[in-house]
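Researcher: Structure for this, please.
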Amino acid sequence: MIILLFVFIQLLTQPAHLLNHSTVDSINRSSRSLPLQPGYVTASPQSHSVNSSYETDHITNIQSDPTQIVVFTTKNGPHDKLRIRIELTDLKENRIITPIDLQGIWLMISRGKYTIPFLKPDHWYGLYFRSENIINNRPISHVEERLIKTASRQANSSTPTNPLFDVKMHRSLDGEVNTEGFYVTARWLHAVNRVNGSDVVVDVSVDCLHSKSSEKIRLPYYEDSVTVEIRVDHRYELENLNKTSHQVKAHITPTVCKRICWKKSIEMVSAKNRFAQEFGTECKDIEGTTSVTYLRNLKHYTVEGNSDRELVIVTESVENTEEAFITIQALRIDQSNASDVVYRTFNTKNTNGEFRIPLDNDAVYAVQYEYTKIKPFHYTEKEHFVVETPAVNSSRPSHVPIEIEFHPQAVDEHTKLEEVKPEIVLKRGLSYDVHLHLESFCENVEKDVLLTNEQPSYHIDAHSVLCSSPSKYPFCSSNITNACSSTILCYSNAIMMKNDLDTSQTVPERYSSDIRCLNVTQHFNLPSFSSKIPISLNIFTFMYGFTFYYL
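Model: Predicted structure, token format:
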């Protein structure tokens, strides 16, 4: 009888917010949980534990009414040494409401369900929950922090609640479309609902083939919005729309990163704690896009000047203004210890299409022309070619990639040997591997030859071309059997070299020369056949002058 009276007195003296007014089932039916929609999704707790957190009480659910909240917890472990502390912070006023601190016999009655009344509707609170216990002389503790908003008096289950913020993924910003990336923007929707010290936090993750990248966006209460740009690697497939104007359409697709997700939450701080509430996770596939633009065209290049040489590269573009760069690198290669390099970068915004760099006299350069377009997408193309500058008061440099020798051999009058055919010898002039391309010439078909240390020269029989028309050469017969349609020999070459100054080059590049042509008959004069001494010629003057054209 005394025990029952004691329990009854304890119930009467217990604070009103600890009395159970109904069963858990009835509370679930009559009370409104935090709605599962943008802006009000029930949060995963911020929690930490000492020792085994499953041996002490945890929050399982929080239900919200306009003027009260009910906290439901587990009942793990004995209650005799259990202590529960709940602090509720009014985040707008930054003050702690009278805390709940229970232990011992008080928990026999109210353990598992804690009601906190007399709250303001449509108001933000921070909930701090701590459970402590001693089991087998071992202290155990568990802490959770939750961000809670009480329901509005006018809200009901059929009326959606306006979200506080939104997060969206988009490609356009300030009227420009980002074809190589995208933006993620977080923004507040209602300034009146912001609380001082509150932040929208967006954890963005990009799923790639073998990796995952993440970025945290934080939008403070005093800013309206925040935007971050995310770039991923893409593959470009160009489709020519107009070859004359160099208009192209780029099909841009991501290579390894295919999906983006963002987890939304709100964080609010008090003097002691940081409370957070999650608002769900959204995911979207990263889709490809297309873009149409014009590319700058390399028309031709030329060497100008008599004493002060300049390489002039002429380009053209349909666009009046273009965000692009031209980088020209000229490496001198005609000296064994050559290290001279000319390097210039030009912005195409204010240019007439001509780009000039200074060169030395009497030199051979391996030139790299690099065109990099920035917008609407990144595009890079490179051209490699060889440029030769003549010596002062000369038409040719001292060293050239290809040297030509003419061997005017004929019948020896003393030994009366039969016909000895004259030869044209093309020799490598620099210490690089050279791809020699010979166009069709008399009986010789079009041919490609690689000149190396092992094979530094290539020989052409000149008998047919010299005897293809009535001739006074002593070795030509009177009957012409194989007439050549032309006595013009045309050839070009490409030096194979790896430019150590360009880190993107992993294999040797082809530095091509212009096409050069010569009339063979002009180099086999009759007087030369009285001697067997070969005539050496470094061809520098060619059919099209000093200007090299790209089609």
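Researcher: Any notable elements?
Model: Residues 496 and 510 are 5 Å apart (CA to CA). Residues 296-370 form one domain.
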